[in-house]
Amino acid sequence: MHFSAGHRMQKKNRIILALDVTSRADALRVVEAAKDYVDAVKIGWPLILAVGPDIISEIAKNKDVICDMKIADIPNTNRLIVEQAMKRGASAVIAHGFTGDDSVKACVDAAKGQVFVLTEMSHPGARQFTAPVADKLAALAKSAGARGIVAPATRPERIAELRKIIGNLEIISPGVGAQGGKASDALKAGADYIIVGRAIYEAPDPKAAAKALADEVKRSI
Ligand code: O7E
């Protein structure tokens, strides 16, 4: 389904595939394998730099695409980046919030609200800079009119705390599998979707891996 104002990816499987592969053949193979078990595909720099941005529109023909540029610039540049992603068929974009309210609002305007703002990141180094200000970043996402936030499956207790700040905004949560987080823990803590990359695309059988995750999701909601 293509982007349109107010469009929302269908909340069915509650899994977003992080497609961090670096060839077109791998990208299409993994999407085909996982397509029945994921609600959207997240595409970021590894795949775009490897094969070019046309991959966004190609995958957007069949699946909602979240463009993960981790946008972090002045308002005008943010707007230009978001416009390019949307023109190629993205359903939503990912932006950093540390740039401040004007920069985040520029993304929100250009994406007609379809923006997820990073809060506390999922990796160990996140404790240095993003964790101490994560509550403020979540509050900014809400006040700027974003669709939701990104919160760490590696620290599910933080998902629950951030949920209190954002109310009914959506939470998408990376860190399941390769980074040690559990899908069921993230969902029980309040995540709307888990984001999963390596546990699917590096699995010997990506389809079976995606199905197993979808089964875990069903058991935990
Ligand atoms: O560990 P994996 O292989 O399951 O991949 C996780 C994906 O989520 C990967 O694309 C990485 O860039 C992203 N991610 C995190 O791992 N941690 C974060 O804190 C934030 C993200 C992210 O994607 O943010 C935007 C949704």
Global shape: globular
Element-level helix/strand string: EHEHHEHEHEHHEHEHEHH
Termini separation comes to 25 Å
List segments where confidence is low: pLDDT < 50 over at least 5 consecutive residues.
Answer: 1-7
The number of helical runs is: 11
Mean of all residue-level pLDDT scores: 95
State which percent range the strand residues make up.
15-25%
| Helix proportion range | 40-55%
Which structural class matches the secondary elements?
Answer: alpha/beta
Small molecules in complex:
6-(ethoxycarbonyl)uridine 5'-(dihydrogen phosphate)
How would you characterize the overall build of this protein?
Strand 3, helix 4 (75-87) and strand 4 form a beta-alpha-beta unit. The chain has 221 residues and is α/β, with parallel strands linked by helices. 45% of the residues lie in helices and 17% in strands. The protein is globular and about 45 Å long. Residues 18, 20, 42, 44, 68, 94, 116, 118, 121-122, 150, 152, 172, 174-175, 177-179, 195-199 line the site of 6-(ethoxycarbonyl)uridine 5'-(dihydrogen phosphate).
Which key features would you list for this structure?
8 strands, globular, 221 residues, 8-stranded parallel β-barrel, binds 6-(ethoxycarbonyl)uridine 5'-(dihydrogen phosphate), disordered N terminus, 45% helix, alpha/beta
Task: Present the secondary structure layout.
Blueprint lengths: L14 E4 L5 H11 L5 E5 H7 L2 H7 L3 E8 L3 H13 L4 E4 L5 H10 L4 E4 L7 H4 L4 H11 L3 E3 L5 H11 L3 E5 L8 H6 L4 E4 L1 H4 L4 H15 L1
Parallel strand pairs: 1-2, 1-8, 2-3, 3-4, 4-5, 5-6, 6-7, 7-8
Bound molecules: 6-(ethoxycarbonyl)uridine 5'-(dihydrogen phosphate).
6-(ethoxycarbonyl)uridine 5'-(dihydrogen phosphate) binds next to β2, β5, β7, β8 and α10.
